[in-house]
Amino acid sequence: MTEMRDVRHGLSLCAYELRKATEAAARVLAASPAGSTETALAAMLAELDLLGLDANLLDGGTRRLGDPKHLPVWDVLADPAEGAACLTKGLTNAMACLAVAPSGSLFDPGPAFYMEKLVAPPQAVGHLDPAAPVEDRLTALARCLGKAVDDLNIFILEKPRHRDLVERVEAAGARVIRYPAGDVAGALLAAMPGSGVDALMGTGGIAEGLLAACAARVMGACFLARLDPQLATERRAVADAGLDTHAWMDLESLVRTDNVVFCATGIASGLLLDGVERQGDVWRSQSLLVGGGAGPRQMLTSWSQG
Residue 289 belongs to what domain range? Predict the structure, then answer.
């Protein structure tokens, strides 16, 4: 019992401290919407260094955080500018995101860059067949949520690859919520009952997918995914690595632990979070903090000097 209390306390404290890293990245891009992702990432990593995490940063390769003489205890997923392509266009939903899980507990996508996802609220767990036709998926989802298909709101990234998906969802009677970016925000909203988004469908980046999977694991949501290479070079690399592009994975395959922490800070106000605001030398930011088990599930507003 004492050990369990310690784990819960540790996850709560970890989420609270980690949000300083997402806040730092969000401030960089809020101050300069055309600024580089690398600058925002540097701000995020500087805050992580202050926490002394011995971890691997999973960013396509493996970058060590903390003391290189220590074995990595954690794996870190970081996207300091998720959806930030919208910023220079005056659009919304951009966030800085971070997830931390025990080392080796996250799915390794190898050379894959893209992942198809189906995300829905907890009521849908075990009731959706992601390989079924779109119309059947919508019917099953509506049944889980106690709604008519006509009342469903489906978040889909506005990309050419999704034209057929959008047409089929709309032909079935559901409403499509289109955004040019913001894959993680869409998945988070789909995972939250009562958010106004009933599901996320479609293909997006694998890094964003794994970040969203960490949050979905904590929230008990339905999250199903398969590798979905988009370019010939990616398809060859994935095939050479022996990875299956037809098999759908659930959260037990993607995030193999409940001891995961996810936090996100809004850069520009969107469907989920308020964006960063500055008044004089005071920055106001809003963050979502979620931790596994009985860890935190909080929206936190912070004020910081600088």
Answer: 2-104+259-305
- In a domain, residue 134? The reply is yes
**Side by side, which strands form the sheet with 222-227?**
175-179, 153-157, 199-205, 114-120, 222-227
Q: Is there a single domain that holds both residue 123 and residue 179?
A: yes
Q: Are 235 and 270 found together in one domain?
A: no
Tokens representing 283?
Answer: 């920055």
Identify whether residues 9 and 39 lie together within a single domain. Answer: yes
pLDDT in tens, 201-224: 999 999 999 999 999 999 999 999
Contact yes or no for 149/169 (Cβ under 8 A): no
Alpha-carbon distance 179 to 122, whole Å? Answer: 23
CATH of the domain at 88: 3.30.540.10
pLDDT at 8: 43
| Mean pLDDT, range 186-210, rounded to an integer | 95
CA distance 115 to 206: 5
- d(Cα 124, Cα 219) in Å, to the nearest integer? 13
Nearest to 271 by CA among 167, 215, 187: 187
Question: Cα–Cα distance between 254 and 244 in angstroms, integer?
Answer: 14
Start-end of H helices in 32-133:
37-51
DSSP classification of residue 306:
-
Q: pLDDT digit string (tens) for 58-79?
A: 876 668 887 778 877 889 999 9
Residue type, 271: L
Could you give the CA distance from residue 135 to residue 295 in angstroms, rounded to a whole number?
A: 36
CATH of the domain at 186: 3.40.190.90
Residue 7 lies in a domain: yes
